[in-house]
Amino acid sequence: PCLVRKLKIEKVVSLQNIPLPFIKTYQLVYVHNAIPFSKHRFKLKESKFLWFYQKLIGKIIKRSLRKADQIIVQNDWMKEAVSRNCHISEDVIKVERIRCFRLENVSRIEVAHRRFFFPGGESIYKNHKCIIKACYLLHKRGIDNYEVIFTLNSNCNTAKEVLRLFKGGHTPFRFM
Q: What value does the CA radius of gyration of the chain take, rounded to a whole number of Å?
């Protein structure tokens, strides 16, 4: 904060979910962590880290966001959750979707087989189980013309959940 005042910084952009404390400079905050805003309430026995993060760090994030001049989130549900949980007007919150690639140079998209890439660690809040259950329901309905690529090891608990649900049969999942 002292450096911001000393250098007479006009605008601060924080990429760490919270604005800098104790400064009056305009602050734009990018909120990327959904754990404090998740409807799922983590239990201590479920995950000590996620419980701690949601209960304690989450309170700090929510309280500090009230001091931000502008907040950027990645999707509409985060905008609504930040507004509701932090008591902040939605006018202060802007949705900026992340665009990873462009399809301008693609001449033909194969419709017969769809591939979904899901990067993320095995943490429970990444919701791999939700994707697995959705794919299981699709499988039960005979919809199998797709694959889901997880950036997880095939020996992880998520892979074991897949094998348990699909009982060793064909699965649409690939682990990297």
A: 21
